[in-house]
Amino acid sequence: MWPLAVAVVSIVGIGVTGFLYNTKLKQTANVAAAPAVTPSATPTSSAAASSPTPTQLAKAPMTPPNAGAAMAPMPMPSPSPMAGKLAADSVPFINERVRNFLAGDYSAAGDYKAFALNVGGFTGSALNQASEEAARNAALEQCQKRADAAQSPRRCELYAVGNTIVYTHGKPPMPPPPYVRHDAMTERAFASKDFPIVREPQKVRIENIFVPAAKSRSVALGPGGQYFMVLGASSAEEAARRSLESCGAIAGVACMVVAADDNFVVPIPTLFRTTGFFHAASNASILADARGEVVRKLGDAMGWNAVAVGTAGRPGLGLKAADEQAAVNSALVDCAKRDSDCHVIAVGPFTVGPAN
After folding, report:
1. Cα separation, 164 vs 341, whole angstroms
2. What sign does the dihedral 172-176-182-183 (CA atoms) show?
3. What is the band of 58 on the pLDDT scale with cuts at 50, 70, 90?
4. From CA 249, how far away is CA 207, in angstroms rounded?
5. What are the residue boundaries of the structural domains of the chain, listed by start?
6. Per-residue confidence at 81, pLDDT binned at 50, 70, 90?
């Protein structure tokens, strides 16, 4: 009986072991079949696994290295993502040649295709790719190579896949048009030493890059000292638009064109130190119930304008003066009629403080 009992136990043990081993193999196979990582929905700038041939890359004109990045960059804001069908005339940062390419060759091409750009206006595109992933990677790779060659500090991002916008940032903040308003009383020859808000190293950079550059050229400035240059544009309008779009994306608020070609196109204070942008409607130095009147009187006033306030915050205005000194004197006299210890807080579009 003992040999029979041992044989039965052995047979049962072998069967159980085999069953457990088989079950373990099936579980291992199921785990191996599951994806290790969930693909990210955020576009990346990684290159395609197999590099596309030169004929596979779209012949989009390369944006020349004519855009100067702000020296005090800030993160690009992320308002509601742009969505919908690609419209060439609404794509920010790019020049008119690239817009024509998007409206023509790119729009007419079939899948798979993609278009990438960065804040500096550098672009990359790919047409007739084998897959959507290949198109995405090829467009990003081409854009980033161009940006890196010009030492652009901004990374490229996908703007469109096929004819659908996939850009993850909203439109850059822009001021209302017209973007440049010429005024013979305030417009004067450009001088880098008088460039407002920015520090001395930035003035030197502007002198070395902006002054000798080809027309049309423009510099847009943000209230925190962010700025962006566009050089060698096809028109003054294009230069102004692109500099404002790029500066606005960097600053997070609407910028202002301060120089176009050879001239300052806004009043540039020289009697005071510029400290920021002046917004009468929200300026805390002005008595709250007086701000609306200041906004109304400034309105579209041409020439030199200045604002002064006293200890009680009651404002005095100097409007439509022929020069900065006359506007300042008028503002101080007007303020002294209704307040005491008056001082100037704004000249033209800028807040000001005592000169250094």
Report:
1. 59
2. negative
3. very low
4. 24
5. 54-64+75-165, 188-264, 273-353
6. low
Count of beta carbons in the 10 Å neighbourhood of residue 13: 10
pLDDT for the residue numbered 3: 45
The predicted-structure confidence for 178-223, as pLDDT tens digits, reads as follows 999 999 999 999 999 999 999 999 999 999 999 999 999 999 999 9
Determine contact, residues 318/331, Cβ cutoff 8 Å: yes
DSSP assignment of 155-170? PPEEEEETTEE--SS-
Is the pTM for the entire model greater than 0.85?
A: no
Please state, in angstroms and rounded to a whole number, the distance separating the CA atoms of residues 89 and 91.
Answer: 6
Task: At 71, list the tokens.
Answer: 């020296």
- Burial string for 250-286 (b: 16+ CB within 10 Å, else e) reads bbbbbbbbbbbeeebbbbbbbebebbbbbebeebebb
Among candidate residues 51, 44, 62, the one with its CA nearest the CA of residue 129: 51
List pLDDT tens digits, range 236-262.
Answer: 999 999 999 999 999 999 999 999 999
DSSP characters for 212-272?
TSPSS-EEEE-TTS-EEEE-S-SSHHHHHHHHHHHHHHHHSS--EEEEETTEE-S---SSS
